[in-house]
Fold each of these.
Amino acid sequence: MLKQERRERTRAYILLSIGLIITLYPFVLMVMSSFMTPSQLLNNPSMIIPMPWTWSGYTGLFKDLDVLLLFKNTLIIAGSVTLLNLFFDSLAAFALAKLKFPGKNALFGFMLFTLMIPGVLFFIPTYTMLYNWGWVNHYRALIIPSFVQFYSIFLMKQFMEQIPDEVIEAARIDGASDPVIYARIIIPMSVPVLATIAILTFMGAWNDFFGPLLYLRSPSMWTVQLGLQMFSSSIPGQNIQVLWAGEVVITLPILIVFLFLQKYFIRAFTNVSFK
């Protein structure tokens, strides 16, 4: 039995190691390529270790591309969308999970139905509506339509339903109102799912390319994804080392957010018991 367990554990470690190498290889290749010269990248694309190492990609990133402005613009959009999602989606999830009102099941069923509709079908009507409102070339065209996401509400609702009703009833007996219960009981106990939604929403807003391409016209309002794409399409092959450095830099915020919130991310998708 002991030998069998060791063999199974060894196989598991081998498979996990292979998966780790496959997962990390593109990221390592991206980082290494950011330290290469343009001639190395164009003439020897299979090279992994830079020979010699150069910082020209990173210096060019701040010299030829106003990356700090792009970061500020993207952070405004991604941060606003994330905070608004956490607030409004958690309110909706709390109402669907713990409050009783007419039509609750029908409303939740309608939300689930909308999740089955491809989002691309809404691009044209949404753009027409926002254009008629004069929102094109404004950040609100990217923030306001995204401040509620039905998938986030669904995920929060499923998590909040695990919170015992006895806790909420005890708070009501003590005189707590629904806003107090939401702020002092539901939110502190829902930190894992809130962190998960924060990660997913921030990643989606930070990596969004089509939205800024569609609504932002002024270069001073471009996001990192749009700015890097416009910079890369000027002359093919030119400043290729800057593009690799830009990919590394714009990946770091997502990596940092995930590293800080990963323990909550894991807890949100595992069985959580409340006492």
Amino acid sequence: MNILKKFFTGSTTTASKKVVIVYVIFRAIAVFMLINQIPMQRWGDAFLLVLTLALFAVPQFVERVFKIEIPNLLELIIISFIFSSTILGELSDFYGYFKIWDTTLHTLNGFLAAGVGFSLVYLLNKNAEGINLSPLFLAIVTFCFSMTVGVMWEFFEYAGDRWMNLDMQKDRIVQQINSVSFGADGNDVYHIEDIQRTVIEGKDDSGNIIETVIDDGYLDIGIIDTMKDLFVNLLGAIVFSVLGYLYAHHDQKKYRFVRNFMPRKKRLK
């Protein structure tokens, strides 16, 4: 019984009761969905749920390993982001129901990743002897850290689509393409405009032809979604980098709300 209690209520030592309740609700939903997926042998969805449960333990793991405190607001946003992107976004198809869902999450990801990156460098700057980094340098490192996290996430999405038969890089219908593949000598860019219909032919296990028709255009297989995700990640990174610069420049006297998104060194008891 104690093991189950620890599993469902596991959080950082500084987490408030409200944050712990959110943990319990999110984990209960994930476990319930996981139990339902196993009999139906939906192993891809089951893996995603197991991954979600593992990601819920990241704040607690980071706190113990790096000896830092995670603000309640940041911890709440992190676990809500995980829940929203996997269980709601992927498994409940919120990405399909709400077009802005994916954009919002990637913008938030850029903002949060910048907050984590800024905190790491800021703590080093304040606690290491002989280091005195300028606010501008802190902002640049913050921006680069956030964009690196965004790129790594796109790698993860590509891997999920490639090897787990998922559709994390959402396809888009486009009406024009530019390609050298259709050019006469393979070097000239060939433009196809006003595409009305695409027909894809494949074969089933018996060798029969299967025809898939895409109306209203051509099916882009993820590149537009990836570039859009990186762009909004860039916007989130820029916003926090600017806030981080102002926070460091004014030596914490102003923009104190930035602390709500910054892990900090654990206090000694």
Amino acid sequence: MNSNSASVPTATPKRLFGHPPGLTILFLTDMWAEFSYFGLQALLVYYMTSQLGFSQGKSSLIYGIYGGAAFFSPFFGGIIADKWLGRTRSVVIGGLLMMLGHFAMAFPAFLFPALALVALGNGLFMPPLAVQVGALYADDDPRKAHAFSAYYMGINLGGLLAPLVCGSLGELLGWHWGFGAAGVGMFFGLVIYLGFKRLLPHDPGRRMPAAPGTTRVPIDARAVRLLVVLVAVVILFRIAYEQSGNVIALWVRDQTDRSMFGGALTIPATWFQAINPLLIILFTPLLIHYWGKKPHSGTAALLLRRMSFGCMIAGGSMLVMVAAAIVNARTGQPVGAWWVLLYFLLLTMGELLVIPVGLTLVNLLSPAGFAATAMGAWYIAKFLGSVLAGVMGSYWGAIPPALFFGLGAGSVLLAAVILRLMGSVEQRRG
């Protein structure tokens, strides 16, 4: 059962491209928030190894712990939003904390407090904002799945701009310029959110305890179990996926030939982090158009099968890196950039069938009154995946690269098998 139907405005709102205008506001708000988040992420490993003198292993571990904390906090942030703050106040407070954290990153002595502020703010910001996307639509509105894909495209538009702007400023002008630009991005996001708050769904506020003698809203135990298993399986996908900003970033810097025009120009390593969000922006409208023609595209069984197929494609991206590592080991020379381009192409295609589809499934299965909490639980997969990816990344160099990437491929392909089995079970039950 989903709690969002109660939040849908009773009056018929104006439409923008067939969707409520509130979707555009949430799209832009999250775009700037993700610009700030990915701006920091694009610089973090390079900053720690080059500016602070941290070892690669220590930097990868810090990167993984920070990424994990940033996506474990949404579980508690969702509870806080549901029970105490309400969605709007939670988004605003979270955004302010993230903005302060990004500005604090400009000072080396504040590295750990700054990362803590960003992680805490992210926890308060993300779950209620995503829940508001679903609250724009009735439960049976077929546009909801398309809305989450469009919302996810906004995330990646910010991710595309971040390495190009923050990464370039950090590498060319100084680290504090890059981190400062990330803070400014979060400021823009808050201005848009507060300036157009009237277009957003009504905030139900904090969840009140049931009065004596009243009937509690029933919770579908099967749906809750499915959510728990879904989160556990997505962790396997995340272990490999989170290497894209960690070990893959180091591979691009150290084992990839980034020269152009006979060595006259070298592409900045941070620019490669823009490939994934750029491809998402290009592919998402095509997917939305394709899915819009499919009847019954929002059932749990079909969504699970779609996620399984996405994991299979993402597993192929890791196999590409296995092949690249073998070539690198044989020649002892940096490999062509097209290996990384093919990696990001397959990873992105898989991601589009896993992450936004998973958000739709979580929204579909969320128990009434616990929408933000359930959305926060979804981010636990990113938390554990980031931590495990960081631990795995700390062994980069200790084990052969081909084996390293092979382990990542095995993790994602295992997730594909489990999701396929879950989809088959749901189809039989349906």
